[in-house]
Write a structure and sequence with these properties.
This protein has 185 residues and is an alpha/beta fold. Strands 2-1-3-4-5-6 form a six-stranded parallel β-sheet, with helices on both faces. Strand 1, helix 1 and strand 2 form a beta-alpha-beta unit.
């Protein structure tokens, strides 16, 4: 249980640098269920940003454009490149935003996302981390892997919905969020 785990209360969590982290919900879900994640990010030095999505309709150019506008606004406000954490469809949507706006997005962290559906090339300056579970019955393991040449895939135990509340995921986030920007090759 996440709330009983020391990682949720800061044990071993390095302090963030204030950078904005846009948090995207999964298909047919809204921002509400990701409140514990945004609270955690805020407590440990990041600036969590809601997507404004009440019910994620899936991938559309209009939604990707709207999410891109949020990322650009946060980039201008903070003068830092944005990290995007997306659960399920939110991870694929975040990756699409990053592919279009690599000067704005520094890192996409996908939690159980259908990354096999990704079509656009991810620029080399954007870090990509896919967190997946072999037990995920919604987005099965091979489909949740990032195939970008410089991407990192991290296996954790747990269910698809449970990834948003999984202490193992928060441990990966604690190690990953502060990683340096990638240099283009």
């Amino acid at each position: 249980m996440l709330l009983a785990d020391p990682i949720y209360w800061g044990l071993g969590v390095p302090r963030g640098d204030g950078r904005p982290v846009l948090v995207l919900p999964g298909l047919f879900a809204g921002d509400g269920y990701l409140q514990p994640l945004r609270d955690w990010l805020g407590r440990y030095g990041y600036s969590p940003v809601k997507s404004g999505i009440e019910r994620n309709p899936g991938w559309s150019r209009e939604l990707i454009d709207a999410l891109g506008e949020i990322a650009q606004r946060e980039h201008r406000r903070s003068r830092q490149r944005v990290t995007i954490i997306g659960h399920s469809m939110g991870g694929l949507q975040g990756r699409s935003v990053a592919a279009r706006l690599p000067h704005v997005v520094r890192h996409v962290i996908a939690l159980g996302s259908p990354l096999a559906m990704a079509r656009e090339r991810l620029p080399g300056a954007v870090r990509m981390t896919a967190i997946y579970s072999p037990e995920d019955r919604i987005v099965r393991h091979p489909a949740a892997l990032a195939r970008d040449p410089r991407a990192k895939n991290v296996k954790v135990p747990g269910s698809h919905i449970g990834l948003a509340f999984n202490p193992a995921v928060y441990r990966v986030l604690a190690r990953t969020l502060g990683a340096p920007d990638l240099e283009t090759v």
